[in-house]
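Milestone M4 deliverable, item 7.
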Amino acid sequence: MQYIEVTELAGVRSALLRFRSRGTALSFELYPMVHLGEPAFYREVTTRLRASCDLVIAEGVQGSSAVRALTRSYRSLAGHERLGLVVQDIDFATLGVPVVFPDMTGEEFDGRWRRLPLRERAAVAALVPAYVAGMRLLGTRRFLARHLQSEDLPSDAEEESADFSPGIDDLVVHRRDRLLIDAVTRVHHAHSGRPEPFTAGILYGAGHMRAVTTALMDLGYRPAGSEWLTVFTLDDPDAA
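Output delivered:
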């Protein structure tokens, strides 16, 4: 199963995935997110959430200095003239449906970050500024897209990254996966007995979708259709 696809013709695309179960009118829609994309992508996601979801489960660690450091690599590229991309922009207040954020608090994330091995934290402190500087000077959409492809099995690059920084991988991915799965399970128990259709949207980074898919299938849900949404094409605006 593909969550994010990268091709020369279509560019970077996100798969809107639907999961249903024969035993319930509750369904789930998965929105694998890339946190830097064309404005049209985030407008389309917002429109879909508003039109089809009765509840949204969304990612977001608020007020964390460690998260700000980790996300600097893409936040600093937003609005860069060569790329023409923006940071993920979903106005949850305008959706008109309840939104739950089962993520860590900023205080909890920062506390766990400080307990990570110094080697891993130092690597982030050194590599992120270098990556940002290189991308702002010479970066292209093609370069940015190199490692965005995401499927149900981890890529070699993802496994190498997890091996190099196991503490960061556990904090950023696995611990937060468990919180997300708990939230999905609570929604299942709260709404699976409803007689009328009810759709829960899951708006999380693509790296969390493997855990969500496994959890939904364990609860008896199966894939029931998908659509591709374009995150960004590979041609830089100034090359058009």
